[in-house]
Design brief:
Blueprint lengths: L7 E6 L3 E6 L2 E6 L8 E6 L8 E4 L7 E5 L2 E6 L17 E3 L15 E5 L5 H7 L11 E11 L2 E4 L10 E2 L11 E5 L2 E6 L18 E7 L18 E8 L8 E2 L28 E3 L2 E3 L80 E3 L6 E3 L69 E7 L12 E5 L7 E6 L4 E7 L6 E7 L2 E6 L16 E10 L4 E11 L3 E2 L6 E2 L9 E7 L3 E7 L2 E2 L6 E2 L1 E3 L2 E8 L5 E11 L4 E2 L1 E2 L3 E5 L7
Parallel strand pairs: 23-29, 30-39
Antiparallel strand pairs: 1-2, 1-8, 2-3, 3-4, 5-6, 6-7, 9-10, 10-11, 11-12, 13-14, 14-22, 15-16, 15-22, 17-18, 18-19, 20-21, 24-27, 25-28, 26-27, 28-29, 31-32, 32-37, 33-34, 33-35, 33-38, 36-37, 38-40, 38-41
Length: about 675
């Protein structure tokens, strides 16, 4: 895409071959049997418009074909190559956007380049321009995608690339996206001026967006030659709500405008009596805007079918002048209107627009287009091209319709193409001046390219929590017990992100908008593990929605004390008991408190309300007992916890045998 009057080399290799611009026109040069000279095609590449260019030359032929936007527009000689091989010197570099690494830079943008070692047909070229990649063909020996730059390297993505065939960036070329995005509050407006090509296979909608508004405009039709009809506008479709899952890529195909009918020239002789070409369809997934119909061409043959405008999104205008047969092309229902009939002994009919038929505003006038506010302001698209007066004396080129319709030509004035990215139809033929896509007298002007615009609202609202941020749980829950369902207002990813006690918890998804919070241990009120040692556990959770909006919640979990059973073990004696000899009795408890020791149901002196020692949950209590009787005795312990939430308890009764003392006092 030239960013001013086209200059510099698009692709070149030393003195071997080049495709370049000079004074705004496309040129080529091929070396071989003889040195190259350079050939001008007279094809003007307008500034700030994307176009697809293909040059082919079949082996052993002295014929070069150049296709613009998928359609043959020029045929010429093979320059210095003649019928021999095109020169391909070793030790010289292939350059894209320059020649000899640092000279005659191209003053524009290049998106992708393919190099074949086999000739391509017109149908293949038309398909290639809307297709990414090496096409799976071994004949593609070079494929360079400038969306795929790694550091300073542009890899050759051919099926079987030659070694050392990658490109290296030199200087500081600007890398931009094909699409443009405008931010207006929460709205995003994304404009595609041409087909979106990438290795992923489509354009990715912003996460969290499930519908959008879309405007799809087809390419405008080309004008007919001489007193030819104006090209019909590309189809206009605006859908206020397109349901879409953002996880799926969107296919974007923008149709180019159809070429105007070529006038008097020895090149493309088969095109002389054909109508202007139809514009290409634009397509956003299953939304297809039909390309505008070409304008009828003035052949001076009564009822020649080529005098009729072609049908399309909007129909092309019929040819004028004296011959019979001036019918317009039909428009597509819901997308555009028919063209206007050609004027007897006058101009061609106006191309139809998205808002009205051709000739509505006067003989030969292009039909007005239709306005859309998808960009935030009212813009009119898809105007029909004005009819041409060609070589008819006294006529003045007729204006195209509002919305980018081109003006028809007249004997002294060139026509104008439909405005790029409006889908406007091209103006009908001029007279004895250079005009049209190849700069040939009497030609019709080309239609303007289509456009696709998507508008959607960004979700800027963070999810909200509906669960409590402070709650209590009982002690003694099982490990990994669910303690609460964390609930948010929309589909989100919920995770633990902080808090002094966060390591003691885990969280797992429950459904799209909730998660289960678990405690990773069995909480015990008497043995708190929280950082504050006060049975209040603090953590933070964060919810992130699909649009990356996030919010956090601080959660405090309080562990409640339960009334629990205290425990005391059976009595344990330090030695076998003998009458009259002191022995120590010991028991274990799970909480602090006091114990009283009983023998045969009676309290043992000095063994009443004995305090425990130790720490939770391991305490012990002792007393010293001197048995007063021998024979069997029943030993039991009564325990009263200090913590009232624990119940009093008695140990199991131990039956022990007290022996007689074996020594005298």
């Amino acid at each position: 895409m030239p960013q001013a009057s086209c200059t510099g080399n698009i692709i070149a290799k030393a003195n071997d071959y080049a495709l370049y611009c000079n004074l705004g026109e496309l040129n080529y040069a091929l070396g071989g049997t003889s040195n190259w000279v350079g050939v001008s095609t007279n094809i003007v590449l307008p500034a700030n418009e994307w176009h697809h260019i293909t040059l082919t030359r079949a082996a052993s032929t002295n014929v070069v074909n150049i296709y613009l936007d998928g359609a043959l527009l020029y045929t010429g000689t093979a320059d210095g190559a003649g019928t021999g091989s095109i020169k391909n010197s070793t030790g010289t570099f292939l350059n894209i956007g320059a020649r000899a690494q640092a000279a005659t830079f191209f003053n524009g943008l290049v998106d992708e380049v393919r190099i074949f070692n086999a000739v391509r047909s017109e149908a293949q070229v038309a398909s290639d321009m809307h297709t990414w990649g090496n096409l799976g063909l071994a004949s593609v020996v070079g494929y360079f995608d400038f969306n795929d730059i790694s550091g300073s390297t542009v890899s050759n993505k051919a099926v079987n690339p030659d070694a050392n065939s990658d490109l290296t960036l030199t200087g500081s070329p600007t890398v931009v996206s094909v699409e443009t995005t405008v931010v207006s509050g929460n709205a995003r407006i994304v404009t595609f001026p041409r087909t979106y090509l990438n290795s992923d296979g489509g354009w990715a909608l912003t996460p969290g967006v499930f519908n959008f508004r879309a405007l799809v405009i087809g390419g405008g039709g080309g004008g007919g030659n001489d007193e030819g009809g104006g090209g019909g506008a590309g189809g206009f479709i605006e859908s206020m709500t397109v349901a879409w899952d953002y996880s799926n890529l969107i296919s974007i195909k923008v149709g180019q405008g159809g070429h105007g009918s070529i006038g008097n020239t020895s090149n493309n002789a088969t095109d002389v009596f054909l109508p202007g070409e139809n514009g290409q369809n634009s397509q956003l997934e299953n939304i297809v805007a039909i390309g505008g119909g070409g304008g009828g061409t003035s052949t001076n043959v009564d009822n020649d079918p080529n005098r009729s405008g072609r049908s399309g999104g909007s129909g092309g205008g019929g040819a004028g002048e004296v011959a019979l047969g001036r019918s317009p092309g039909a428009g597509t229902a819901g997308q555009g209107f028919s063209g206007g009939s050609g004027i007897a002994s006058g101009s061609g009919g106006g191309g139809g627009g998205a808002g009205e038929a051709g000739n509505t505003d006067g003989n030969g006038a292009g039909g007005d287009g239709k306005a859309s506010t998808i960009t935030g302001v009212s813009v009119t698209y898809a105007g029909g091209g004005g009819g041409g007066y060609g070589k008819t004396s006294g006529g003045v080129g007729v204006a195209g319709g509002l919305g980018g319709g081109g003006t028809g030509g007249d004997i002294n004035s060139a026509n104008t193409a439909g405005t790029a990215n409006t889908g406007g139809g091209g103006g009908g033929g001029c007279g004895s001046v250079a005009c049209g896509p190849a700069g040939v007298t009497f030609s019709g002007a080309s239609g303007g390219s289509g456009i696709i615009i998507i508008r959607f609202l960004i979700d800027s609202t963070a999810p909200t929590f509906s669960n409590s941020s402070s709650f209590s749980i009982n002690e003694n829950l099982s490990t990994n017990a669910v303690i609460i369902t964390v609930q948010v207002s929309e589909s989100s990813t919920i995770s633990i992100t902080g808090g002094a006690d966060s390591a003691l918890f885990s969280i797992s998804p429950n459904d799209s908008d909730s998660a289960l919070l678990r405690i990773s241990f069995s909480p015990d009120f008497e043995a708190p593990q929280d950082a504050g040692a006060n049975n209040v556990y603090n953590l933070a959770v964060t919810a992130v929605d699909v649009a990356s909006n996030s919010t956090s919640q601080n959660i405090a979990v309080t562990v409640s004390n339960l009334n629990e059973l205290s425990t005391i073990s059976a009595a344990n004696l330090s030695a076998a008991p003998f009458k009259g000899i002191p022995v120590t009795i010991t028991a274990q408890t799970n909480v602090a408190g006091r114990a009283s020791f009983l023998i045969n149901g009676k309290r043992i002196p000095n063994c009443q309300s004995r305090p425990t020692s130790g720490s939770y949950p391991n305490f012990s209590v002792t007393c010293s007992w001197k048995p007063a009787l021998n024979n069997f005795q029943n030993l039991q312990i009564e325990f009263n916890p200090s913590d009232s939430s624990f119940s009093s308890v008695k140990s199991t009764e131990s039956r022990i045998f007290v022996s007689k003392r074996s020594t005298r006092r």
